[in-house]
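[step 3/7] inverse_fold.run input=structure_tokens len=182
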């Protein structure tokens, strides 16, 4: 039987500082992620937490900043693995891949912040490494993005385009209800 792990990416308090990050989409992302986490824990399935430890001192995710802490509702329990990273991918500079393989885990469900950065990069790498990946679209969120020429893209569009670029090639994009039902 194939084991499926839930990977929660960067659910950190620093992302609540909208004066720093800007406009965000999907205000229900945390609630939906908690639903997934609750389901995984109730079934005693593997849960993995990933935490961004920024190397930029001014970042809300720098280890010296209080924003580096996990959001309370999505904080790891003592028996749940935590991987710290300082790049976008949860697989770079960590033992995540080796640990998943050692545990016989070949299927992953990912959710987190931000859809177009750490969730996207981790999903692409997981797919390229041969994992069967599902992204919980309604348990992810991102922020508005701006190009150097000044063009702005709203968070919802950035979120949707990031998911569309992953769906079918690197992962299956589903909502939390679909994931829990399956």
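[step 3/7] decode complete -> sequence:
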């Amino acid at each position: 039987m194939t084991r499926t792990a839930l990977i929660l990416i960067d659910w950190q308090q620093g992302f609540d500082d909208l004066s720093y990050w800007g406009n965000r989409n999907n205000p229900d992302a945390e609630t939906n992620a908690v639903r997934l986490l609750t389901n995984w824990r109730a079934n005693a399935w593997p849960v993995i937490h990933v935490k961004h430890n920024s190397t930029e001192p001014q970042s809300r995710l720098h280890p010296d900043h209080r924003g580096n802490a996990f959001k309370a509702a999505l904080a790891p329990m003592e028996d749940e693995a935590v991987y710290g990273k300082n790049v976008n991918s949860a697989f770079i500079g960590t033992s995540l891949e080796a640990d998943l393989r050692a545990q016989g885990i070949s299927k992953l469900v990912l959710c987190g912040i931000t859809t177009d950065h750490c969730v996207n990069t981790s999903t692409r790498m997981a797919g390229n490494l041969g994992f069967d990946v599902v992204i919980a679209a309604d348990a992810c969120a991102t922020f508005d993005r701006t190009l150097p020429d000044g063009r702005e893209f709203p968070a919802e569009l950035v979120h949707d385009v990031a998911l569309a670029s992953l769906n079918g090639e690197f992962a299956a994009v589903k909502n939390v209800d679909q994931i829990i039902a399956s």
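[step 4/7] annotate
DSSP finds six helices and eight strands in the chain.
The mean pLDDT is 97.
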